[in-house]
Recover the amino acids of this structure.
């Protein structure tokens, strides 16, 4: 008779849900009763019984299995703890290295997360877009954030998908409250601004529209002007460029802005003040700082974009000098990450290079630490080969061994994760914040969405755990016991695998070191860049109008410590124009500086050909202008050829009178561009450049400030030393240097920990050989060399591999950030390699003591 | 002293009653007969596993049978601590039952 078998699926489920210990007996019982029933009542009843019995047994069995799995896990963890404790050095290397890497990764994550979740607090964010435009500027097309003044209302009226349009225009009034007088930047906004954006009010009612005489203050402004007092209903006096005082009533005070906001206001007033100040809101030739639109759905954007050509042609016929080639839309969630590429953008975002570099560094550090872990795990496993062999011989399954090694790994990773988060929280994040002048606005744990942060940490745990844990676990547990006991499994300090991993590690260490050295050198290089003009002992004061300028000038000239005063309409790094000019048939967009007599001499701008301005040869008199050398170069004029060339701007015709050297017109991040210099009469001057006699700058500044108080008592003081214009850039450079030096040291530290672990293990495993050699008369230097040459070769090969990668990566990176990147020379590499090699040698040399102090008698007797 | 759970006590007593014949099926049959209710196989084996872990019972292989799919029976025996645990539990019960008013079914 053919034997009837139980249903295969049910049997499989049963086998899977039974604990190892009772599986055999229980499955036998199941099958016994099944056979009985099959004999007496037929196979169908038997199968039905099997399924039913499985169903009612399953809860008991699954619970039982789960309970014992937890007990086993506890055992795995206990054994893991014991093993880690036994190999203290290796565990320490692993945990320390990993936690440093985790700390870097967490810091990097917070930084990058901040960048990409900026402005996420606006409730309607998905539907809010900033209208941007591409504007043709001579041969270049500029991506600009300012848009034609009437565009917003026109779009709202014409396009049904545009629910609301809100414009922001900037005003720069002097604000007076009691004795407090400051120059401020305020926003003039359309009345729906507060409905569209989620800036909450601390005081006042958000739903009440801002009236023509109302002002909404930021929290910081309210404290600045009113301190602890309740500012609601208080009066503030605004003086705009028309010099007419206007009274505003405080109607609201905003909550302190969320940390993750890339655009925020000091004060909000009604948009119609533009009209009052004489700007025609209907004029397509005027632009406003920003136009935001709220759409019904983000999917409408392509169809809206398709209808923008009409507006482009209206604007282009109204303003031929600012031809718009295309309107584009940026969701407010993306503003900060792309704002570096947009001129005149409302959002203050930073260049993504920072995120890229930090992200790369975090990845490098994690890779370094994971490799440390893999190397150390494989090497320490050689000590445990006998354990593995015996466990397998007495019936331990491969899966149990894998579990054991994974448990050890999870313990290490969990400890490292906790430690890493603590290091990040207490040291890295505050340290990182203190480098930048974010005050309290830096990266913060509380700002990161808790869900995302936990997700990131879990992924980090799994990735580090799996990446660094699986390979050793599966590799080691697959050894055959007989091979282990025959001693034919060789797993020494050096296999091709560990060699490969160590090389990879040192390539990473070299790369990070090269990055650090290059960034540090570059910041020195940038600090030493010739700005094209001298800035020492130069003091600058800006007046608001012609009369103030004249009064200030005549008074300041009387001060004892003042050597010379010259005037100009524009000023380096503060103010310039960007006209479009025609040269022959080509259109160019140089920067334009209007200067007064003596300006060139005072700032040491060199005249390379032609003649300088004199009081009788002004641009306004004879149309003569100066150009910088780059202007001549872009036209491929030689210095001499340039003289007498004609440049047209609108209806005015200029003649090149001379060529001056190139100068930095804004900051080092902006490339030097073609420039034209016009000589203008004193009526147009606003900036006073004051040369102060050496040794008296402090008291002279005091004197100038005192004069300011008497001449323009109701204006905020505007004086500054020209060399302090660069202060923030220098500080930023110093900080970049610090960050990268720190990162390079960390990377080197982690790599050397790996090297230390490997050399230590190698020497420990070859103690017998060392002792025999010592007995036979080998010297310590000879032994040291014998043991460590291979490591030094690995380090050297890594250096060779890292060189070209480092060169190309850093050239690209510097080129993308700086206008004038430092050329990377051999010194960067020599420095990096010297650092790494010396540290590697020092690491290895810690092992010399072990070799020299080993007593051959002890070692050999015990074995 | 750890008192046995009721299921554990029932299992241990049954194994002791069956002596050399105590394996999953016979234990289950005996318990079903004595308690008058149907016990699933899982409900027998899960506590048996626990008793084995606690060291109160040990197992021994019996003879293979065709009806068990060629598997051997797994015979359960009390260990000394299993016997002690039963005695301890009985002592507590006896102590609690002595000298009290007689319970009556309504």
């Amino acid at each position: 008779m053919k034997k009837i078998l139980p249903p295969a699926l049910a049997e499989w489920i049963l086998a899977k849900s039974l604990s190892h210990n009772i599986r055999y007996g229980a499955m036998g019982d199941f099958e016994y009763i099944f056979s009985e029933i099959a004999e007496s009542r037929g196979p169908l009843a038997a199968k039905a019984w099997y399924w039913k019995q499985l169903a009612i047994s399953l809860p008991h069995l699954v619970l039982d299995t789960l309970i014992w799995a937890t007990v086993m896990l506890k055992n795995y963890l206990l054994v893991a703890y014991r093993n880690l404790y036994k190999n203290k050095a290796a565990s320490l290397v692993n945990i320390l290295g990993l936690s440093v890497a985790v700390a870097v990764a967490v810091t990097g994550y917070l930084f990058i997360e901040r960048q990409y979740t900026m402005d996420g607090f606006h409730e309607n964010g998905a539907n809010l877009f900033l209208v941007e435009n591409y504007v043709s500027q001579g041969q270049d097309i500029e991506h600009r954030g300012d848009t034609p003044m009437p565009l917003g209302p026109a779009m709202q009226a014409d396009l049904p998908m545009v629910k609301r349009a809100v414009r922001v225009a900037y005003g720069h009034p002097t604000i007076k409250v009691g004795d407090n007088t400051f120059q401020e930047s305020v926003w003039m906004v359309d009345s729906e601004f507060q409905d569209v954006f989620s800036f909450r009010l601390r005081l006042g009612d958000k739903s009440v529209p801002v009236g023509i005489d109302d002002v909404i203050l930021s929290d910081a402004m309210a404290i600045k002007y009113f301190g602890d007092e309740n500012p609601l209903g208080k009066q503030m006096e605004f003086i705009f460029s028309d010099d007419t005082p206007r009274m505003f009533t405080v109607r609201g005070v905003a909550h302190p802005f969320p940390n993750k906001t890339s655009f925020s206001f000091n004060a909000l007033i009604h948009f119609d003040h533009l009209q009052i100040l004489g700007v025609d809101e209907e004029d397509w030739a005027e632009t406003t700082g920003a136009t935001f639109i709220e759409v019904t759905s983000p999917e409408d954007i392509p169809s809206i974009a398709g209808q923008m050509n009409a507006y482009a042609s209206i604007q282009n016929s109204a303003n031929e000098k600012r031809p718009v080639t295309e309107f584009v839309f940026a969701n407010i969630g993306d503003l900060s990450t792309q704002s570096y590429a947009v001129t005149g953008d409302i959002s203050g975002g930073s260049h993504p290079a920072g995120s890229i570099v930090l992200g790369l560094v975090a990845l490098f550090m994690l890779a370094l630490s994971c490799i440390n872990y893999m190397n150390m795990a494989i090497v320490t496993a050689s000590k445990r080969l006998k354990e593995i062999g015996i466990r397998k011989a007495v019936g331990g399954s491969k899966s149990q061994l894998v579990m054991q090694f994974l448990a050890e790994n999870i313990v290490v990773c969990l400890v490292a994760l906790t430690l890493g988060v603590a290091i990040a929280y207490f040291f890295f994040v505050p340290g990182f914040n203190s480098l930048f002048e974010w005050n309290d606005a830096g990266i913060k744990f509380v700002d990161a969405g808790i869900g995302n942060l936990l997700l990131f940490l879990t992924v980090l745990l799994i990735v580090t755990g799996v990446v660094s844990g699986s390979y050793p676990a599966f590799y080691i547990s697959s050894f055959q016991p007989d091979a282990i006991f025959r001693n034919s499994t060789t797993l020494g300090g050096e296999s091709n695998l560990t060699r490969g991993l160590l090389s990879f590690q040192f390539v990473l260490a070299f790369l990070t070191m090269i990055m650090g050295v290059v960034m540090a050198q570059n910041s020195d290089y940038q600090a030493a860049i010739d700005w094209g003009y001298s800035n020492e002992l130069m003091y600058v004061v800006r007046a608001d109008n012609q009369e103030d300028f004249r009064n200030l000038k005549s008074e300041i000239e009387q001060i004892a410590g003042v050597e010379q005063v010259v005037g100009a309409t524009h000023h380096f790094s503060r103010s310039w124009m960007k006209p479009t000019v025609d040269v022959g048939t080509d259109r160019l967009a140089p920067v334009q500086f209007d200067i007064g007599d003596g300006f060139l001499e005072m700032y040491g701008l060199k005249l390379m050909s032609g003649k300088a301005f004199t009081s009788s040869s002004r641009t306004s008199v004879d149309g003569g202008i100066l150009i910088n050398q780059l202007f001549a170069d872009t036209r491929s004029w030689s210095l001499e050829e340039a003289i007498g060339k004609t440049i047209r701007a609108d209806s005015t015709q200029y003649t090149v009178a001379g060529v001056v050297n190139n100068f930095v017109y804004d900051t080092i991040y902006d490339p030097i561009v073609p420039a034209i210099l016009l000589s203008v009469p004193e009526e147009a001057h606003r900036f006073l450049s004051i040369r102060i006699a050496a040794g008296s700058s402090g008291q002279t500044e005091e004197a100038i400030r005192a004069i300011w108080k008497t001449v323009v008592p109701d204006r905020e003081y505007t004086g500054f030393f020209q060399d302090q214009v660069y202060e923030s850039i220098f500080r930023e450079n110093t900080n970049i240097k610090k960050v990268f030096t720190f990162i390079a040291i960390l990377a080197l530290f982690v790599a050397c920990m790996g090297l230390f672990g490997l050399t230590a293990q190698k020497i420990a495993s070859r103690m017998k050989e060392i002792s025999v050699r010592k007995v036979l008369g080998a010297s310590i230097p000879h032994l040291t060399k014998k043991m460590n040459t291979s490591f030094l070769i690995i380090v050297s090969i890594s250096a060779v591999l890292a060189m070209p990668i480092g060169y190309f990566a850093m050239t690209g990176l510097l080129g993308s950030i700086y206008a004038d990147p430092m050329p990377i020379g051999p010194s960067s590499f020599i420095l990096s390699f010297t650092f790494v090699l010396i540290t590697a040698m020092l690491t290895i040399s810690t092992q010399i003591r072990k070799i020299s102090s080993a007593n051959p008698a002890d070692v050999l007797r015990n074995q | 002293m750890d008192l046995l759970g009721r299921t554990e006590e029932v299992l241990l007593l049954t194994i002791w009653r069956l002596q050399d014949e105590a394996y999953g099926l016979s234990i289950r049959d005996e318990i079903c007969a004595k308690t008058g209710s149907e016990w699933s196989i899982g409900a027998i084996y899960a506590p048996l596993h626990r008793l084995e872990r606690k060291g109160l019972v040990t197992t021994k292989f019996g003879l293979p049978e065709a009806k068990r799919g060629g598997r051997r029976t797994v015979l359960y025996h009390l260990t000394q601590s299993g016997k002690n645990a039963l005695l301890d539990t009985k002592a507590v019960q006896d102590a609690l039952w002595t000298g009290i008013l007689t319970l009556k079914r309504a």
User: Anything to note?
Assistant: Chain A has a mean pLDDT of 84. The longest helix of chain A spans residues 43-86. Residues 353-528+729-861 of chain A form one domain. The interface with chain B takes residues 3, 6, 18-19, 21-22, 24-33, 35-36, 53, 56-61, 63-64, 68 of chain A (CB under 8 Å).
